[in-house]
Automatic annotation (TrEMBL), chain A:
Keywords: Cytoplasm, GTPase activation. InterPro entries: FAD/NAD-bd_sf (IPR036188), GDP_dissociation_inhibitor (IPR018203), Rab_escort (IPR001738). It is found in: Cytoplasm. It comes from Camelina sativa. Residues 542-555 have a biased composition (Acidic residues). It comes from the Eukaryota. Substrate-binding subunit of the Rab geranylgeranyltransferase (GGTase) complex. Binds unprenylated Rab proteins. This is Rab escort protein 1. The keyword GTP-binding does not apply.
Automatic annotation (TrEMBL), chain B:
Catalyzes the transfer of a geranyl-geranyl moiety from geranyl-geranyl pyrophosphate to cysteines occuring in specific C-terminal amino acid sequences. The keyword Transit peptide does not apply. PROSITE patterns: LRR (PS51450), PFTA (PS51147). It comes from Camelina sativa (False flax). InterPro entries: Leu-rich_rpt, LRR_dom_sf, Prenyl_trans_a. It comes from the Eukaryota. This is Geranylgeranyl transferase type-2 subunit alpha. Belongs to the protein prenyltransferase subunit alpha family. Keywords: Prenyltransferase, Repeat, Transferase. Its EC number is 2.5.1.60. Pfam families: PPTA.
């Protein structure tokens, strides 16, 4: 990165807030701080917006994964002597989020030809729920003017048989479902109605059936059993609607046993999402051009409000007050020193352990959130990306597929989610689809194994040409794999550290609910309990005509 | 368009609507001037356009436009190039009006009128409709118009059926779509279009509507479709003869006015002062065209060549389930004691047609024997009071001749029942799964009733009745707002159960000693609220319905042999509720004591009864001439009692029954022998 063209020095060199990294959480913070009148400098070491939430072309994605999967050699440019005696500089190190990166191309010719027509997410599979907090924030901030969405047309539950069954997530879907018996339809709709009446209830209303306090505190899976829902329906509710990861029936391996209360909240989000926008086909929508559009929309909003943007600009060191140990500013890769009241950092930025030893207790306290935590026994998320020719389900382009725990193989401990996206979303060329896979795992091997199993269920691997005749006979109409990426990502939580805060990595969820909620919470801690975007109202006319698109507006 | 809460109007909205009213008023008055003076200038027509754009409900303006169109068409001649722009302009105005309010009757009607002129392209209409029906998928105006356009364009019914499929899949809570489906299927099934055989299609449709009912048992749109399907399954198109009196193979003893002493106990004895007896035909649906041309009678009884067949119905129409002819049996020459065979044949020549237009097609004949007996005059027996408390002898349950009194559904033989029974059986199995919901219970009860009605096999006949009664009991407890409906259905089921076999019926049958061993049916103290199964009770001469919860005598009109009727301790609220008894010419004894007559004002909307205002033959009426005030006051009693030949009447225990009313009754029914257990004048 040292061969970058020299930047003209930044002016001014003093800000209320410096944000490093342009992921969703960082961008929301930058937009919120700018709109509340703070002066903000927003930096990103990469040449694109979005950090770990970016959507990239295949070559860019490949190089990003590779460069972030190994710890870069400790770049030790000679530290220029600080020109002030009151400051001490602490070198920063880059933590890599990814491991076990494996990228294979099966038809490089075609991919080469179209390589720039891909917008592939780093944080997939990921969608936006219509009633998601991220949508509310976009509306509040006006960021919705910069993004357009389209609906995910269908969601399915799969199993080892290869059959994909529609998720009966609405009245019409239950009515149409071919895989449910009449009684199952009855029980499922009754359960949905119970949830809806629970959501609509007011405290003085005693006529509607309510779920008892005791039930609310019991495990959700037990509550579903109590509602006489058969196993197949329970599984649909738990993994394809509430979008849970862990096997709720297996006490040993389940790291998160959901309570009924939380389960109802998750269903509520889904149900509210279904009805929020009249032109959306279902609960889930996806931004045209990929997930990278979301952080970028917030950045554009921030820029309108005066936030200063510099890409391709890593920071190399933190500047602390020698005496008090308090934070003062950062040193850019260009060598310039920039000062601010507060600092928000990307999850990849850490303090080198060797530099800690020489610091005082106060200085250590300031840097608390940047000290790498021991990562023992922490879960990771395995992600996979496949580019295929054709579609996993004929006549459906954009679809979500969930494999509940144990549905593919007996040792499958967590749900595997698959998202197929087509050219309608401008993420790939016309006759292809991009598939995203993810599953939680304890170690890389376990995660990759689960992803490969799901891939094998949906996709046909290319075979050497000599076998092509046989292949035509044996393989049914499964789509053909053209390109594949497999990687395992660490899950890093955001942390509030007073003056310096660290933002989370992309989480294991399908939506942005937790990401945005934690970003909002962190922001409120950092900037005081100010409400985000309080004075913003999106009076500007929203999205233009967009064929088949979803119009996001407040009604 | 549905389920949106109404919002209170804001002040600025009110101001806007006031301004609109001012504008409308001035437009309206200018428009009316043009209209009255028949001015159809460009300017005048444009004014009406403006008016309709603001208020599509201004139907006078639509009519004005029709006149204006006719006017300009009459002037330009038949050149289609000139006609089309005029009509296109009308379509445009309608479209704008519909954008304003797409439930405007006037606008839709105007569009139909324009389309009927035949110059406009119909292709656009379906596209327009798709747009409207996307906005509001249940709008019945749009559906109506759709049927009109479909007929005009000869679009196939199959395509339209597919359209209802799509709409229902989109949101099955769509009454209009289900309704249109039933309309289309009726036609496709009636024409036996490709693959539209009822035995195949009806079960498929049941399968579709199950998805809706099971998904959301509280959504009523599916219920109606299910009811329609059930109706298609149960009801055979051609009318059938359900029963008759006298029934096939039975013997009847006929005697004169005095009635017999000591007749044999195993046959029905019928006495008449007029020397005739009723021949009753009971059909499963209302039919017309019963006449000597369609019903042939071979009999040695003379004088019955040109029988008059009378429909027994409260409505004055010429269709009825029940038809009666009175056969004479006293001829000029004494015939002594003699058996006569009577053979009745119907269906050999066409003419009996159901109200839905289907022919009675299966020829049918039945034979019975009449035994005419001379009698000794015995005036004493007529004078004795019928007490309802004693003098009853239990029917001999072992007696085989009960079977000859009423026909068990053997007349339905030969109808293709197989698929229908299979469909009902699978429905029963299906709805047993939904028995925890109200609609599930109700549907199950209806299905079980339908199954009973279809079952011919005596071995399994009647097995469902206990379950049906229990279901209605449950429903009464569960759903109090529809209690009366369930109660009525419970009564119907109960009466079906009683009449389902001769064994169960005989438990309620008696002979009344004091009156020539009349056949008496006692259905008292059973909390009945409705009368049913009358077709199996045509032979009954004495009927005890006391201590029930009846509101009316509807249905009893078919019981032409009935001479004594006890309705005491019921819930009769007015004499209008007894209106059907006017058809029962034999009725001599009527007990309506301890009811609610006079307690409430007469609900004239409920009973189709003669109204005092519409009757023109009043002036010729003696009683009315004498006492117009009382007739006006007791008009409902007057119209019923005047047509009956009662000898004994009990009205005690009713609000109405005071001295004034008693004296009025004696004026209206001068032949009355007993009033409230007393001889009048004593």
């Amino acid at each position: 990165m040292s061969d970058l063209p020299p930047y003209p020095p930044l002016d001014p060199s003093n800000y209320d807030l410096i944000v490093v990294g342009t992921g969703v959480s960082e961008s929301v913070s930058a937009a919120a701080a700018s709109s509340s009148g703070s002066s903000v400098l927003h930096l990103d070491p990469n040449p694109f917006y979005g950090s770990h939430f970016a959507a990239l072309s295949l070559p860019d994605l490949t190089s990003f994964l590779h460069s972030n999967s190994v710890s870069p050699p400790p770049s030790s440019p000679p530290i220029p002597p600080s020109n002030s005696h009151e400051l001490i500089s602490v070198d920063l190190v880059h933590r890599s989020l990814y491991s076990s990166v494996e990228i294979s191309s099966f038809d490089s010719e075609i991919l080469e030809e179209h390589s720039r027509r891909f917008n592939v997410d780093l944080c997939g599979p990921r969608v936006v729920f219509c009633a998601d907090e991220s949508i509310n924030l976009m509306l509040k901030s006006g960021a919705n003017n910069y993004v357009e969405f389209k609906s995910i047309e269908a969601s399915f539950v799969g199993d080892s048989s290869g059959e994909l069954r529609n998720v009966p997530d609405s009245r019409a879907a239950i009515f149409k479902s071919k895989s449910l018996t009449l009684l199952e339809k009855n029980l499922l709709m009754k359960f949905f109605k119970l949830v809806q009446s629970q959501l609509a209830k007011s405290d003085d209303d005693t006529t509607t059936v309510k779920i008892s306090e005791e039930d609310m505190e019991s495990p959700f899976v037990d509550f579903l059993t109590k509602m006489r829902l058969p196993p197949n329906i329970k599984s649909i509710i738990l993994y394809a609607i509430a979008m849970l990861d862990y096997d709720q029936d297996n006490m040993e391996t389940c790291r998160h046993l959901l309570k009924t209360k939380e389960g109802i909240d998750r269903l509520a989000l889904y149900i509210k999402s279904m009805g929020r926008f009249s032109n959306a086909l279902g609960a889930l929508i996806y931004p045209i051009y990929g997930q990278g559009e979301l952080p970028q929309a917030f950045c554009r909003r921030a820029a309108v409000k005066g936030c200063v943007y510099v890409l391709r600009m890593p920071i190399t060191a933190l500047l602390l007050d020698k005496e008090t140990g308090g934070y003062k500013g950062v040193r850019l890769a260009s060598g310039q020193e920039i000062f601010s009241q507060k600092l928000i950092l990307d999850p990849c930025i850490n303090v080198g352990l060797e530099s800690l030893s020489s610091l005082t207790d106060q200085q250590n306290e300031t840097l608390r959130v940047l000290v790498p935590k021991a990562m023992i026994n922490k879960e990771k998320i395995a992600r996979g990306i496949c580019v295929i020719r054709g579609s996993v389900k004929s006549d459906v382009s954009n679809a979500l597929i969930v494999y509940p725990p144990k549905s593919l193989f007996p040792e499958q401990l967590t749900a595997i989610r698959v998202l197929q996206l087509g050219s309608g979303l401008a993420v790939c060329p016309a006759d292809m689809h991009v598939l995203y896979f993810s599953t939680l795992c304890k170690n890389d091997d376990q995660g990759i194994k689960a992803l490969l199993s799901a891939m094998g269920n949906l996709i046909r691997l290319p075979v050497p040409e000599s076998d092509s005749v046989v292949e035509n006979v044996t393989c049914e109409a499964k789509p053909l794999l053209l390109w594949r990426a497999l990687y395992v990502q660490e899950l890093v939580k955001g942390e509030f550290g007073g003056v310096i805060s660290s933002m989370p990595s992309p989480d294991e969820n399908l939506n942005y609910k937790e990401t945005v909620e934690s970003a909002v919470k962190l922001y409120e801690q950092i900037m005081g309990s100010e409400e985000l975007f309080k004075e913003e109202t999106s009076l500007e006319n929203t999205t233009e005509e967009n064929e088949g698109g979803v119009e996001i507006d407040e009604n | 368009m549905h389920g949106r809460p109404r919002k209170a109007s804001k002040p600025e909205d009110e101001a806007a609507s006031a301004a609109k009213a001012v504008k409308l008023r001035s437009l309206q008055s200018q428009f009316m001037t043009y209209h009255h003076e028949k001015i159809y200038t460009k300017e005048a027509i444009e004014l009406s356009t403006k008016l309709l754009e603001i208020n599509p409900e201004a139907y006078t303006a639509w009519n004005y436009r029709k006149l204006a169109v006719e006017d300009s068409l009459s002037r330009i001649g038949p050149d289609p190039n000139l006609v089309k722009p005029i009509l296109d302009e009308e379509l445009r105005v309608v479209e704008n009006a519909l954008k304003q309010n797409f439930k405007s009757y006037g606008a839709w009607h105007h569009r139909k009128w324009v389309l009927s002129k035949g110059h406009s392209s119909t292709g656009n209409e379906l596209k327009l409709l798709d747009k409207f029906q996307k906005l509001d998928s249940r709008n019945f105006h749009a559906w109506n118009y759709r049927r009109f356009v479909v007929e005009l364009t000869n679009r196939s019914e199959q395509d339209e059926l597919q359209y209802t499929d799509d709409m229902i899949n989109n949101n099955f809570s769509n009454y209009s779509a289900w309704h249109n489906r039933s309309v289309l299927l009726s036609s496709l099934l009636a024409n036996r279009a490709d693959g539209f055989m009822p035995e195949k299609r009806i079960p498929d449709e049941f399968e579709i509507v199950h998805q809706a009912i099971f998904t959301d048992p509280d959504d009523q749109s599916g219920w109606f479709y299910h009811l329609w399907l059930l109706d298609q399954t149960v009801n055979v198109e051609s009318p059938l003869l359900t029963s008759s009196w006298p029934s096939h193979g039975s013997s009847v003893i006929l005697s004169g006015a005095g009635c017999l002493n000591g007749p044999p106990s195993n046959v029905t004895t019928f006495c008449s002062e007029t020397g005739s007896f009723p021949l009753i035909l009971y059909f499963d649906q209302a039919v017309g065209g019963v006449s000597p041309l369609t019903v042939t009678i071979d009999s040695e009884l003379k004088g019955n060549e040109n029988l008059v067949w009378e429909p027994i119905s409260n409505k004055s129409s010429q269709v009825s389930c029940v038809w009666v002819a009175r056969l004479k049996y006293f001829s000029s020459q004494p015939c002594g004691s003699k058996d006569h065979k009577v053979k009745v044949r119907l269906g050999n020549s066409p003419g009996i047609v159901s109200s839905r237009g289907y022919n009675f097609s299966a020829p049918y004949e039945f034979v019975f024997t009449v035994h005419v007996q001379d009698t000794a005059e015995d005036s004493h027996s007529q004078e004795s009071i019928v007490s309802w408390t004693d003098g009853f002898e239990l029917w001999d349950a072992q007696s085989k001749d009960l079977n000859s009194l009423f026909t068990l559904d053997q007349l339905n033989n030969g109808i293709d029942l197989k698929w229908r029974q299979a469909a009902i059986d699978s429905e029963i199995e299906c709805f047993r799964l939904l028995a925890d919901s109200k609609i599930g219970k109700l549907t199950l009860a209806r299905l079980l009733m339908a199954s009973e009605a279809m079952t011919l096999d005596a071995a399994v006949k009647g097995v469902y009745y206990e379950e049906i009664l229990q279901l209605y009991n449950d429903l009464m407890a569960l759903d109090s707002s529809h209690h009366q409906y369930y109660k009525n259905e419970h009564s119907v089921a109960f009466l079906h159960k009683v009449t389902s076999s001769s064994e169960s019926l005989s438990r309620h049958l008696f002979r009344y000693r004091d009156m020539n061993n009349l056949v008496c049916l006692r259905l008292n103290k059973l909390s009945l609220s409705r009368i049913a199964s009358v077709e199996k009770l045509l032979f009954v001469q004495m009927l005890d319905l006391s201590h029930n919860e009846l509101h009316s005598t509807e249905g009893l009109e078919a019981m032409q042999l009935l001479s004594c009727l006890n309705l005491s301790h019921n819930r009769i609220r007015s004499f209008s509720a007894l209106d059907s008894l006017r058809h029962v010419k034999q009725l001599k004894v009527l007990d309506v004591s301890h009811n609610h007559i006079g307690k409430h004002s007469v609900d004239t909307t409920r009973y189709l009864c003669s109204s005092p205002l519409s009757n023109s033959d009043w002036s010729q009426d003696g009683v009315r001439g004498q006492n117009p005030g009382l007739v006006t006051k007791y008009w409902d009693a007057y119209f019923v009692l005047r047509d009956l030949n009662l000898k004994q009447l009990d009205i005690a225990g009713n609000e109405i029954a005071d001295d004034e009313f008693s004296s009025f009754v004696l004026q209206v029914v001068p032949k009355l022998v007993w009033l409230n257990g007393q001889k009048p004048g004593n």
